[in-house]
User: What shape does this take?
Amino acid sequence: MAELTSLSQIRNKLLKRWEQYHFHQLALMEQPHEQWLQVKLPKITGKQLLHEYQDVIEWLDNVADIERHHGVQLVKQQVSFTKLGKQNLPVAIRFADMESLTRYLGKWQQWQGFHLAKQQIVSQFPQLMPWVVGSAALVDKHQASWPNLLKVCEYFTQHPRPNCYIRQLDITGVDTKFIEKHKLILKLLLDQLLDDEAIDQRFDKMAEHGFEQRFGLKFDPPMIRFRLLDPQFWHEFAGMSDITLPLEQFAQLDLMIDQVYITENKINGLAFPKARNAIVIFGLGYGIQSLKSVPWLTQCQIRYWGDIDTHGFAILSQLRSYFPHTQSMLMDEATLLACKGGWGTEKASKAHKAERLNCLTASEAQLYHDLKTHRWQPNLRLEQEQVPMHRLEAWLG
Assistant: This one.
């Protein structure tokens, strides 16, 4: 009957609370069991007893069956009815402890693993107990990894800001891949355990080696590939014109250039025409964010050439947020329409999600909007390699 909760509904309600880590948190907070280890049952009305008696009896029989589970009992209460007098009816289901609840839900082994993980954490780092209470889902998710996670935490507490590569950390049983895979949870733990001076608060994200920079580790730096477009500068690099440098060294260059072209396509970078006092940087994609740490770029004219698609304009907007004087090149409606034979399709699932980008000019923003609204065709894309080189040469003048 619709008004009376079935045993499957009761169990589903408990499972939902379990999946939300409601029971985990209350158990960790050591709240008295009788306050939360029970489920109220619907009240049976006199009308139901009179007119739906058989359904009520069947429901009572089903509910009574729950007591076959160890540590589970029905809480009964005497209820007075006008026509039927006093009746002793179940009003709640009570579990004796977390073992009886988790066995009823089929979660006993998972609970044991969670409880063991909690004991491992707080026995080694008692100060993490408040974090454990507020992070039950993470404690549970990483059950199998806690012995090694705690080894890493112990190492960093003893050797803050070790100034070495992850590969060089001398932690028995823990390899580079383990730390790489668990950077997020390790960040949360180390933020709780380390002194302020051992954490570089400027680096809060995991991208761009944020973990290594936050906790004083060495890392493989981003590499910048560029070509010297003016032969007069080749002698400064022993006659070489196509050069790849670590970002830190690139940022320290002292070239007398005033023009910087940036293009995503490698071949376009290799084929870019010669130009006075200029270089071309290529192949960075969204790694273009690494250029924000290059101070001398603020003194150069920067021109960005990307694909005419949603991601091309997203990268342009990102670059311009670092260098507001950046200009786009060959990323306009005239170029798009003139190269119709090279039109392709940007995968709908990978199209940039933003409705608008903050750092575009009015004409760029309009073209981005036209692409997003499929003005010419769905998910239109013109890759930069589809633009003939003579158009580039004409643009450069």
User: Anything to note?
Assistant: The chain has a mean pLDDT of 90.
